[in-house]
Amino acid sequence: MEITKVGIESIPCIQHIAKITWAIAYKEVISNDQIDYMLDKMYSSESIKNQIEVQGHQFILANFENKSVGFASFNIKQSIPEKIVKLHKIYIDPDQQGKGIGKSMLQFIMNEISLKGVNYLELNVNRENKAIGFYKKLGFNIIAEEDIPIGNGFFMNDYVMQISCL
Ligand SMILES: CC(C)(COP(=O)(O)OP(=O)(O)OC[C@H]1O[C@@H](n2cnc3c(N)ncnc32)[C@H](O)[C@@H]1OP(=O)(O)O)[C@@H](O)C(=O)NCCC(=O)NCCS
Questions:
Q1: Which of 14, 29, 69, 106 is surrounded by the most beta carbons within 10 Å?
Q2: Greatest Cα pair distance in the chain
Q3: Hey, whose CA ends up nearest to atom 44 of ligand 1?
Q4: Which atom, in ligand 1's list, is nearest to the CA of 123?
Q5: How many domains does the chain have?
């Protein structure tokens, strides 16, 4: 398995993995209407291009047997008083979950940021998402709850989780 940093050339690949992953991961968590709304808002070509080129999100792709099987993205959220990197996305092809790919992607990100004086890696996760178990297994702790309005009457009902990078 190989993990590489990627740019806008990988947008179609990211969109494909997001589509097949979200349909399953959020089936019993949010409505189909909210899935469609969020995919459009966060994964349209224009939106991903903006995340990469304007907001400075770094995307990474995991490739296994010549196939892209997962992606993640992160960027610096704040530098003062503590340096925090935000993990925005991590999604593994449902056929490839449970094989250590998600863990390898997080380790890749930790390696990328550990030498840059980053205090915490932080993420938001839906409070009903099974991925909470994955994050806890890897050492993340819940530090807050957030209910974030995202338009059209939809909310993200999240936990904020952090892991120390020092
Ligand atoms: C959550 C996700 C990224 C984890 O990636 P993965 O490749 O399936 O997980 P891994 O195989 O790397 O698992 C690493 C460890 O976490 C454990 N783990 C994985 N999922 C778990 C879960 N839901 N609950 C508890 N432990 C879990 C594994 O058993 C493994 O433990 P080990 O190191 O002792 O063997 C992936 O399953 C996924 O894409 N899920 C759907 C999308 C999603 O919800 N993404 C997160 C959005 S916030």
A1: 14
A2: 43
A3: 131
A4: 48
A5: 1
